[in-house]
Design a protein that fits this description.
CATH architecture of the largest domain: 3-Layer(aba) Sandwich
CATH class of the largest domain: Alpha Beta
Number of domains: 4
Radius of gyration: 28 Å
Distance between the termini: 62 Å
Helix content: 10-25%
CATH topology of the largest domain: Rossmann fold
Number of helices: 11
Strand content: 25-35%
CATH superfamily of the largest domain: SGNH hydrolase
Length: 647
C-alpha cells in the first residue's frame, strides 16, 4: 500500500529517534549513494531490519512497505521508472533510517572477466583525451572488491562505493569497460552505471553459479563444491583423487609409480633457492611451463607424528597439488596465496616422512617462492619444525595441459567468484553484460557450453532474455603461425563467435588486430571499448550496425573443390590489407593434421579459396595463438577466428 509523503516523513523522523541498540535497515546488492538503477524495470529491494519490523521505502514519489521476517530479511518492489534523477532513496523502520542520496535511473552494465577486463585506464594506453575525461555526473562507476566464497553470499564484502566518472576516478577503473560506457553515454543520452567485477587469471567456471555449472556440463564440480561446504576433508580427498587419475591418464604412470609416491625414482636434485625456478640458472627450466616436482623428507618422533598438524609451504606459482606420505592433503592455484594445509591425525608417521609438491606452472614464472620463514610443520601442541632447507626438485615426463583444479579455488574454481562478487549484486538489474575472458580456458573443451550457460543464468537472475551481451573475442598472443596446427586460443575464439552468433541479443568485439604476440595484456583498450560499445548498440539498443563487424555466414564448395565463403555485417566491401590475396585461411579434410594454408581471392562480401586437389570438409581462419591475417572491411574491422563446414 502506498505511503503518503507526510506520513513517511513522520516515520523517518521517528526512526531517527529509535533506540540505538537496534540496527538500522540495510540494503543488499550494489545500491548505495550515487548508484544507478535500471530504468523501465521494476525496482526490487532486499535487505535486513529488525525482526518483525515494518520497513517503509520511498523513491521518486513512489513508496512501498514490507515486514521483516524472523531472520530480519525483507523484500519490496517499487514500480519501473524512466531515466531520470537524481533522487533520494529512503528506507525507514522503527530501528532507524537509511537515506541514500543522488540516485539516478538509467541503464546499468556489468563488465566481467579476467585480467584484460581488469586492466585499468591508467595502465592502458592513455595518449588521448578520453582517458582523462571531464566530470560526467551521469556516468557512474563501481568496482567490486575481489572476494571468493564456496557458498553464495547475500551481501558484498565491502559496501558499494559508486563514483561519478571524471579525471580523478576513471583512471582506476577497467579500461575496456570505461571506454564502452563512455561511448554509450555519448549516443544513448541517459544516465549510465557501470559495475566492474573481474579477477585476473580466472577461469569462466569460477564465475558460474551452481545452476550454470550444471547446465554448462560442470555438474561434477558443482557437486564437489557443495561437498566442500559440508565436509572439506572429504572434498579434498576426492579432488586429489581426480587429479591423480588425470596424471596417470596423461603420463601413463601405473598406480604406485607416480612422482608423489615415497619411493619415487625421479632424479631428484637440490633446490637452489626459494625463488622462481626460471631464475635458478638451470637451462632446461629457463623458459619452462609445466609441472615441476618438489620433495622434502623429514624425520619425526612418535610424539610429533601422533596427532594432527599444519603444513605451511609459502606461496607457489602457479598451482600446486601437495601430498604427505603419498596422501593428498591440499591444492590451490592462486600464485600469491601462501599454502597452509591441515593434516589429520594419522597422516604423519614416526620416522621418515615425505612431503611432495607438484607445482604446475602454466604461464610466465613458476616455483615455490616462500618466504622461507613460512615453510614449517606445526604440531598440535604448538611446536614446529622449519622446512626452509633440504628440498629437492625433479622433472617428470612432460604431460599436456589442462590439469584439473579444485572447485573451491579462488580463480580456477567452480562458482567461487560468482558466489562472492556477482550473486550479492542481485536484485540489481542490468541492461547489458560485457564479457572479456577466455585466456585461462584455452585448451579446455566445452567453452561454448560454459559461456552460454553463464549468460543465460546471469540474464535470468539480473536481467531479461533481452539483456544485451557483448563478448570480446580474444586478441592475438603467443606463438606466431608458421604452419597449420591445433590451437587452444583458436578454439576459444571460435566458441565465443558461435555463442554470440546464436544469441539474438549478443554482439562480438573482434580484437585480433589489437593483440601483442609478446604481451597477453595488450595496452590498446580504448578501441576494445569502442568495439564493445558498437556491439552493445546492436545487441541492446537495436542500432543498425553489425553486431560483430564482418562475420562468416557460411562456406559452400567451389567448382574446383575449394570453397567460397560469404560474410555478413560487412561495411562497404572486404579487402586484403597490404596484399593481393587474403591470408590466414586453411582448407581442412576430415582427418586430424589435414589442414593446409589457402590464399583467398576477395570480392565484395565473399572470399574464394582455390581447390588444391585434396578434400575440403571445413575451413578455418586465424587458427593460431598469433595468426597472420589481413582481411578487413571499410569500417576497419577485422574478420575474426572461425571454423565452419564446407556445405
Amino acid at each position: 500500500m502506498p505511503i503518503r509523503p507526510a506520513r513517511l516523513a513522520l516515520l523517518v523522523a521517528a526512526a531517527t529517534l529509535a533506540a540505538p541498540a537496534l540496527a538500522a535497515p540495510r540494503l543488499d546488492g550494489a545500491i548505495g549513494e550515487h548508484a544507478v538503477l535500471q530504468r523501465d524495470r521494476p525496482i526490487e529491494l532486499r535487505g535486513t531490519a529488525g525482526p518483525g519490523e515494518t520497513v517503509m521505502i520511498s523513491l521518486a514519489g513512489h513508496s512501498a512497505s514490507a515486514i521483516a521476517a524472523r531472520d530480519g530479511r525483507f523484500a519490496a518492489r517499487l514500480p519501473a521508472l524512466p531515466a531520470g534523477g537524481p533522487y533520494e532513496l529512503t528506507v525507514a523502520a522503527p530501528s532507524g533510517a537509511l537515506l541514500l542520496g543522488d540516485i539516478l535511473v538509467g541503464d546499468v552494465f556489468l563488465c566481467s572477466g579476467q585480467s584484460n577486463m581488469e586492466l585499468t585506464v591508467d595502465d592502458a594506453q592513455t595518449a588521448f583525451a578520453d582517458a582523462h575525461p571531464p566530470l560526467d555526473p551521469q556516468l557512474r562507476l563501481l568496482t567490486i572488491a575481489k572476494n571468493a566464497s564456496a557458498t553464495p553470499l547475500g551481501r558484498l564484502a565491502t559496501p558499494p562505493r559508486w563514483q561519478a566518472a571524471g579525471r580523478d576516478t576513471a583512471g582506476a577503473f577497467s579500461a575496456a569497460c570505461f571506454y564502452m560506457v563512455q561511448s554509450l553515454r555519448r549516443t544513448e543520452k541517459v544516465p549510465i552505471g557501470a559495475i566492474h567485477a573481474s579477477w585476473g587469471g580466472s577461469r569462466i567456471s569460477a564465475w558460474m553459479s551452481d545452476a550454470a555449472l550444471r547446465a554448462g556440463g560442470e555438474g561434477d564440480a558443482a557437486q564437489l563444491l557443495a561437498l566442500y561446504a559440508r565436509d572439506p576433508a572429504a572434498a579434498v580427498r576426492r579432488a586429489v583423487g581426480a587429479w591423480e587419475a588425470w596424471w596417470r591418464g596423461a603420463s601413463g604412470d601405473a598406480p604406485g609409480r607416480e612422482p608423489w609416491q615415497t619411493d619415487s625414482a625421479l632424479a631428484w636434485r637440490a633446490v637452489p633457492a626459494f625463488t622462481h625456478f626460471e631464475d635458478w640458472g638451470v637451462p632446461e627450466l629457463a623458459d619452462y611451463n609445466g609441472i615441476l616436482w618438489y620433495r622434502r623428507e623429514i624425520e619425526l618422533t612418535a610424539a610429533q607424528a601422533a596427532g594432527p598438524a599444519t603444513l605451511s609451504l609459502g606461496a607457489i606459482d602457479d598451482a600446486d597439488e601437495t601430498w604427505v606420505n603419498g596422501v593428498g592433503v591440499g591444492a590451490s592455484s592462486l600464485a600469491t596465496l601462501p599454502r597452509v594445509y591441515a593434516l589429520p591425525a594419522g597422516t604423519l608417521r614416526s620416522g621418515r616422512n615425505v612431503i611432495t609438491v607438484g607445482d604446475d606452472d602454466v604461464y610466465a614464472f613458476g616455483g615455490m617462492t616462500g618466504p622461507t620463514e613460512r615453510l614449517r610443520l606445526t604440531f598440535a601442541d604448538g611446536t614446529s619444525v622449519p622446512l626452509d632447507g633440504g628440498w629437492r626438485y625433479a622433472l617428470a615426463k612432460p604431460v599436456g595441459g589442462g590439469a584439473p583444479r579444485v572447485p573451491w579455488d579462488d580463480i580456477n574454481g567452480a562458482g567461487t567468484l560468482d558466489n562472492a562478487m556477482v550473486a550479492p549484486l542481485a536484485p540489481l538489474q542490468f541492461a547489458g553484460i560485457a564479457w572479456y575472458q577466455g585466456e585461462s580456458d584455452t585448451g579446455l573443451p566445452g567453452y561454448d557450453k560454459r559461456l552460454a550457460a553463464l549468460i543465460a543464468d546471469w540474464r535470468q537472475r539480473m536481467g531479461t532474455p533481452e539483456t544485451g551481451l557483448a563478448v570480446v573475442q580474444l586478441a592475438a598472443y603467443g606463438t606466431r603461425a608458421k604452419a597449420p596446427a591445433e590451437s587452444g586460443w583458436g578454439m576459444v575464439r571460435d566458441a565465443q563467435r558461435r555463442v554470440a552468433a546464436a544469441d539474438p541479443h549478443a554482439g562480438l568485439a573482434v580484437t585480433l588486430d589489437l593483440g601483442d604476440a609478446l604481451d597477453i595484456h595488450p595496452g590498446e583498450k580504448r578501441e576494445v571499448g569502442l568495439r564493445l560499445a558498437r556491439a552493445m548498440r546492436a545487441a541492446r539498443y537495436g542500432a543498425p550496425v553489425a553486431a560483430a563487424g564482418p562475420a562468416i555466414a557460411g562456406a559452400r564448395r567451389g567448382a574446383d573443390g575449394g570453397a567460397v565463403l560469404r560474410f555478413t555485417g560487412v561495411t562497404g566491401a572486404l579487402s586484403a590489407r597490404g596484399a593481393a590475396q587474403a591470408i590466414g585461411f586453411e582448407l581442412c579434410g576430415a582427418a586430424a593434421g589435414s589442414c593446409r594454408f589457402a590464399a583467398g581471392t576477395v570480392a565484395g562480401d565473399t572470399v574464394t579459396l582455390a581447390g588444391d586437389g585434396q578434400p575440403a570438409r571445413h575451413v578455418r581462419y586465424a587458427w593460431a595463438e598469433t595468426p597472420v591475417v589481413n582481411l578487413f572491411d571499410e569500417a576497419q574491422l577485422p574478420v575474426g577466428t572461425f571454423d565452419v563446414p564446407v556445405e
